[in-house]
Amino acid sequence: MSALVPSGSTAVMARRIEPPDSLDFFPTPPWATRALMKHVLGKIFSPLSFLGWTALDPACGEGHMAETLRESFGHVFASDVFDYGCGYPVVDFLDREHPLPKVDWIITNPPFNAAADFVRRALDSAGHRGLAIFQRLSWIEGGDRHKALFAQRPPHVIAPFAERVPLHKGVWKPDGDTATAYAWFVWVRGMAYAPGETRVRWIPPTCRAELHRQSDVIRWCPPAPLPLFEGEP
Question: Where in the sequence is the domain holding 103, given as residue range(s)?
Fold first, then answer.
């Protein structure tokens, strides 16, 4: 996989290319990714460590998470199974015939119904330091998912947001709202927990105000076209 859109570039083109409904595309607010780095991974590792590490977002969409990760990691790879018109390689992460790049971290927001498959694919690949998945908090529920994933490979850390993280289908709305709770699910290779033990680390209810940046809005929320005046074509 090649390196992608360079850091600092604009990820969203003027014309959006909408994916099929089945891809469950809900862009992650950039501040929610910064919360992972500050309040979760940054509490486990020295923040300076990430400058020498690499990361992969294999469900990058329009780059809301991948480009934000570039603020912390030395290098970030990004791809998606669908071409959103933003210049990222089209790669099916779940295709085990396709080799994964050798990276330290896999960090992503995959489709809800495919998230367990993403986790298994990531954990089965060698060499990664860890994996972080952004999902609805309700992802911990379900007997089938528990049997197939959590009972065998529980996350080391679940980090629920104490405030709501607004996600909207197909677009990031900086002023959006939601009744859905979200969390980060984190696996760390070599972390010595008792079998089945998962720690909870709350993400404080101040992140949206503290970690939001106006530059994110400029980058991912293109202004609406100006209205036509009478007589214009």
Answer: 23-220
Count Cα atoms within 13 angstroms, Cβ side, for 173: 10
Mean pLDDT of the chain: 87
* Tally of structural domains, the chain: 1
**Res. 2: pLDDT tops 70:** no
Q: What is the pLDDT of residue 197?
A: 85
CB 59 within 8 A of CB 96: no
Cβ neighbourhood burial of 10 (10 Å; 0-12, 13-18, 19+): middle
pLDDT tens digits, residue range 63-96?
999 999 999 999 999 999 999 999 999 999 999 9
Q: Are 33 and 65 in contact (CB under 8 A)?
A: yes
* Domain assignment present for 184: yes
51 located within any domain: yes
Whether the per-residue pLDDT at 164 is higher than 90: the answer is: yes
Q: What's 97's domain CATH number?
A: 3.40.50.150
Confirm whether 201 is domain-assigned.
Answer: yes
